[in-house]
Amino acid sequence: MTTENAATPTRSILSYIKDLPNICSLAGLGCTVLAIYFLIIGIYPAAMIGMVWAVGFDWADGLIARRMKGRTGDDSKFGGQLDLLIDIVSYGVTPAILILSYADFNPAFLPIAFIMLVFGAIRLSYFSTFGLSGGAKYTGLAIDNNSLILVFVFMFADYFDRPMFAIVLAACGLGLAILNVSQIKTPKLSGNPINVVILALYTLAVTAIYGWALL
């Protein structure tokens, strides 16, 4: 991987970890790692908690970054790239593993997982290149919504037998992937402090519901 016209670095790689928004981003990555672990071993309520907290930390890092003073341009640029790399793991890889795991890793579900990852990577690359449409809206459904929606949908798992609900999850995942790369315009929810509060309440509610299921 090469970067043309890159600026000469003046700091070490690990020095960027001290940036508070980046710490928040990495905390979200930690939640994602836990979610993936619990998906693999089949403890789904714990995985859902990890998935929703990953979104919470993702939204929080942007809010913190916008309110911090004295943050350099390098900090912002590095943080933006770090966010994108974490996003493909949190909102592309993790939902794909959720569908594969709940389908008992049936190879028939591999094409769905692959499409989700491909469309997720394309969606993030598009946003990295072109940014917001008109400076205010996303083109396509923001990829963090994938986890928020799938965590909600999973609350209905007990109403279906496992093979049928695996198909439901796969259909939801495919539908979300298509929306990720569609031309629909959606608002930037994470940029509004009110929406961050709503997400915080949603995260706490999800944690309580799935935490109860773990008891």
Question: What does this molecule look like?
Answer:
The protein is an all-alpha fold. It has helices at 20-41, 44-67, 73-102, 110-130, 144-153, 162-180, 193-214, and strands at residues 137-139, 185-187. A two-stranded antiparallel ribbon has the order 1-2. The longest helix is centred in the middle third of the chain and has 30 residues, at 73-102. The model has no long low-confidence stretch (mean pLDDT 90).
Please write out the topology:
Blueprint: H1 20-41, H2 44-67, H3 73-102, H4 110-130, E1 137-139, H5 144-153, H6 162-180, E2 185-187, H7 193-214
Antiparallel strand pairs: 1-2
Helix pairs in contact: 1-2, 1-3, 2-3, 2-5, 2-7, 3-4, 3-5, 3-6, 4-6, 5-6
Task: Give me some keywords for this one.
single chain; 215 residues; two-stranded antiparallel ribbon; 7 helices; 69% helix; globular
Summarize this structure briefly.
With 215 residues, this protein is mostly helical. Helices cover 69% and strands 3% of the residues. The radius of gyration is 18 Å and the shape is globular.
Q: Profile the largest sheet.
A: 2 strands, antiparallel
Query: What is the N-to-C order of secondary-structure elements (H for helix, E for strand)?
Result: HHHHEHHEH
**Could you give the distance between the termini?**
46 Å
Mean pLDDT across the residues is 90
Rounded radius of gyration (Å): 18 Å
Looking across the biggest beta sheet, what order are the strands in? 1-2
Shape: globular
Low-confidence region ranges: none
**Share of helix, binned:** 55-70%
